[in-house]
Amino acid sequence: MASRRLALNLTKGLARRAYPTPASLRTFATPVSAPIKTLTTTLKNGLTVATQHSPYAQTSTVGMWIDAGSRAETAENNGTAHFLEHLAFKGTSSRTREQLELEIENMGAHLNAYTSRENTVYFAKALNEDVPQCVDILADILQNSKLEEQAIERERDVILRESEEVEKQVEEVVFDHLHATAFQHQPLGRTILGPKENIRDITRTELSNYIKHNYTADRMVLVGAGGVPHDKLVELAEKHFSRLPTKSPETHAYLLSKRKPEFIGSDVRIRDDTMHTANIAIAVEGVSWSDEDYFPALVAQAIVGNYDKAMGNAPHQGSKLSGFVHNNALANSFMSFSTSYSDTGLWGIYLVTDQTSKIDDLVHFALREWTRLCSSVTEAETERAKAQLKASMLLSLDGTTALAEDIGRQIVTTGRRASPGEIERTIDAVTAEDVMRFAQKRIWDQDVAVSAVGAIEDLFDYARIRGDMSRMFS
Q1: Is 425 left (phi over 0), alpha (psi -120 to 50) or beta?
Q2: What EC number(s) has UniProt assigned to this enzyme (predicted)?
Q3: What is the pTM of this model?
């Protein structure tokens, strides 16, 4: 009896949704007959609408992915994109800050935003029936933010405090310096928050100009994931975003942001002997999102692996380097990475150690592992790395917000979305030979960028590190 009542209540709950399900309600044991696809539509003004509709989802994430982040700034207005993210929720011409907050809270929705080097994103997660209201709010904050002087001054102080907090996070500092030295005096090398002097001086004019120059339909993708049908989101997009400017003006900043940056072999060191650890990032020029070596780069990164001696499985973390580092007590942790952008990337390793007298050994054997990738990768370690990579990528798509992020990022950077199945097949096709070909092309005897912070007195000079990029080992 109880199970019948539960089933009846469930059916009633599904029937009340804003977007009705197909006539024949799928039972729990019925397999899905066709894979769920990502659909895209381009409006007359150039705005792309992309969705992945899950008919039985109770919630949806909708958001706007914009092809503009700190890379679209100049040295003078660096920090503007992040500043705008803060001001977006401080009131529009039709909603005060209090009204905006109350409206979101009354729906039980989540509204958020973030800025990266290449993208700015505004998104909301809500029940399906509240999606039209969320799109209305997103359209309002993107097109009608008041940018009041009082709000600007208030957020200026907030961002300055945020900047101070970021400076206390060593990993953030190291990677900001890594970008700054690898892409010196170029848009991609600037920080997302911008220098403090810029934060103090950014004006309302600069903020409104950034919107005018970058928030245009040709550089924006409205994404929906979950229970919102594609046709419904297209209808909402035409209603709320049809007045968006069609094309970005080709300003000097725009042209610079679209120019492929030059990778510069160099290093930056901030020695602080009061710190108990040395924190070192080393990278070669990586690959873009659309590069043919994108997946071989990821597999190579997974072969190098990660390590954390605080983990219970520290002696058994799979990669050869982690075993060697653990057995010789060389590091507290290390993390290999492959960071991609629209036209370039950084492929490398981040090392943390309190064994400061062993820094040279740690760096040497990390780079020795890199050169090994050029000539002696086994199928067994390739298969292990591929399995880890597939699991990591597929698990990261759990939830409507994660799905929306994947769709938005792919479409705004490459123009299309590769499905999880396509990605899985592409990873499966990577061989040990592909990894070695990538390493021979991108790692062997290549310039490196080095960023080091902390107790780094024993870190050898750049020439010694660069020399390890082409050593022959038996």
Answers
A1: alpha
A2: 3.4.24.64
A3: 0.90
